[in-house]
Amino acid sequence: QVQLQESGPGLVKPSQTLSLTCTVSGGSITTLGYYWSWLRQPPGKGMEWMGDISVSGNTYYSPSLKSRTSISRDTSKNQFTLQLSSVTPEDTAVYYCARSPRRGTTAYGARGQGTQVTVSS
Questions:
Q1: Which residue from 22, 26, 36, 108 has the highest number of Cβ atoms inside 10 Å of its Cβ?
Q2: Would you say 94 and 106 are in contact if contact means Cβ atoms under 8 Å apart?
Q3: Are strands 59-61 and 69-74 parallel, antiparallel or unpaired?
Q4: pLDDT, tens digit, for every residue of 45-78?
């Protein structure tokens, strides 16, 4: 059974870059048929899809975040990472990594427990 775990700082200053890592166990990020996703949920709002990385390493980003978002992976560590630049307090949210059956969706088959990230000086 695949498990995902997010890690990274819980507090980021405005204008800095938020960096999170998702460590996957119980399955490989190169297994065909899945996308590896980053989602987030700001306080009082719904879940937002941020971007995906495919099993071949192709990346897909939300148009509203594309200019600030980068997703990469390290297949030797079975990890994928999120970088979100120029953060503002509006980027405060619970961030999740997930395994999804298709790209560009908040639907997922497995998801990490989430990590709170607060943007504040």
A1: 22
A2: no
A3: unpaired
A4: 999 999 999 999 999 999 999 999 999 999 999 9
